[in-house]
Design goal:
Layout: E1 21-25, H1 39-46, E2 51-57, E3 70-75, H2 78-83, H3 85-103, E4 109-113, H4 118-130, E5 135-141, H5 145-148, H6 152-163, E6 167-171, H7 174-184, E7 190-191, E8 216-222, H8 234-249, E9 253-260, H9 268-287, E10 292-297, H10 303-312, E11 315-318, H11 322-325, H12 331-338, E12 343-346, E13 360-363, H13 366-378, H14 380-385, H15 387-410
Amino acid sequence: MHLTANKRPVFLFLIFKMPNFINVIERDLRYGGGHEHTLLRSLANTAPEVSFRFLTSRSGDPDKMDQSSLCLPILTNSKQQKSDLSTALAADAECLSRFIRTKNADGLCKFLIPSADPYYIRLCLLLLRTIKHRARFSLRILYEGAISALSKDETSQLKAEINAKNVELLTETPSLSRRLVQAYQISVEAILLLPCALMPDDKVKFDRACNGTQVQHFKIGYLGGLRTEKGQDQLPKIVTQLAMRLKERNPDFSASVLYQTHRKRRLRVRNLRFDLKMLKASISAWRQGNPVKLVKLEATLSEAQFKEILQTVDLLLIPYNLDAYAHRGSGLIIDGVLAQKPIVATRGLGMADLLAFGSALDAASASEFAEKIIQLMQNYDQFKQHTGLARKAVLQQLTASQDYLQHFASAD
């Protein structure tokens, strides 16, 4: 597929000037499964004094995009980028060059790329070869692979642009910042944390349902969709181990595990294998007297539905794989901490600093997850009391993110 920038409507580039303006480049701004990153609302909530213009790909259903903000679908989409990388880069570079020239002939154009993958890093470097001193980029790196995928020459150019103050690198976690400095000798400017489904101003619910005075029933949420890197293979094992331990040692407790179904229908064989494992775990729990029940949720939830479920569960289960999440952040952790939910998560996650306030426990195996869930059940009120400290830590990071965005928007 040949991509030509000269066929794009000219009126898209007739943009008026606004103070404290940041141009945000994001590949996909369609609504997701409730918990997914709703970028427009997150940025607006984090930095209400900053005006954002969103540049996105020419793909997807426009009816599923937020039309309340200025969104310009002028860039190539992921399919085009994968089919012909060099052509897509050239087309997007030409498009953004024209955008910069039209927006302001003499001023500095500021771009924030909150999900900077190798493609957008390369696009940034390509642009800076031709429009130096006309644009400044803030790139938020979410995972190490965004840097490790670059060639030596690309990494050297990135370092040079950082030293020249044309590029600033951001991360979502201090862990990833340290990793980039240690492994690649690349400096990181700041941590940019953004809310996901739950906004800081959303009301937090504290009610918890108990059945009777002796048997206490807990709702455990495994939310955000089933994916290998999010520990879906661990879930059936954890359910089985939890049912065994509740039956043998803690008959006064019972639990429901709420989990979302698969989204990608094309992975039918893998999905079927998982469903069979969950059925086996359910049968095992039934043989133990049903101390653990499974509640299957829709794969795609509306934002309101996701928030309601998040607020009604008693604790969150986050058995993410360290291969993917040792240094990266998690929207579910941000949501869970803001909702003041106790959490049982994999030991060593990139956001472990938000789970270190006495409101969470960590584990490394299915049996240990089961033990820690029971420990949290037995001391639920104690863990719940500390969730306010974790929420305060997230709010402080969001305030720091607001300060950064305001500074970046107003910088000359």
